[in-house]
Design brief:
Layout: H1 3-17, H2 25-66, H3 69-72, H4 75-85, H5 87-122
Helix pairs in contact: 1-2, 1-5, 2-4, 2-5
């Protein structure tokens, strides 16, 4: 999956997570099912992003070594050089990590709301 495709997936997922859920139990159950799929997909996309991040970092280290930057630059500057080489993938790693966390929290919140509704209307 390309960086552009993953960026689009992340934007779509974030948009969905920012929509307030309905208070109807059936709607909440539907949203929970969508969130379950999103959690799985975000995990997959996170793994892909981390793999690409590692590839870019490896290339940056190799390039820095070939250019003898590791001998001419302080370690802190060299680390920043390497880290910023993967900035787009770093963003995606962080984004999919946050999407996963948000989806899990929303799923848990919906389960709590459904339980509350069951006790309120059945009790």
């Amino acid at each position: 999956m390309t960086k552009e495709e993953l960026t689009k997936k992340a934007a779509d997922m974030n948009t969905y997570l920012q929509i307030r859920s309905d208070d109807e139990p059936a709607s909440m159950l539907d949203r929970m099912q969508i969130l379950e799929i999103m959690i799985a997909q975000a995990g997959e996309y996170l793994a892909i992003s981390k793999q690409n991040q590692d590839i870019i970092i490896h290339e940056a280290i190799t390039n820095a070594t070939e250019m003898s930057l590791d001998e001419t630059l302080p370690a802190s500057t060299l680390n920043l050089f390497i880290k910023t080489a993967a900035k787009d993938w770093n963003f995606l790693v962080n984004t999919f990590d946050r999407i996963n966390s948000s989806a899990v929290h929303q799923h848990d919140g919906l389960r709590t709301r459904i339980s509350y509704l069951k006790t309120t209307f059945n009790g």
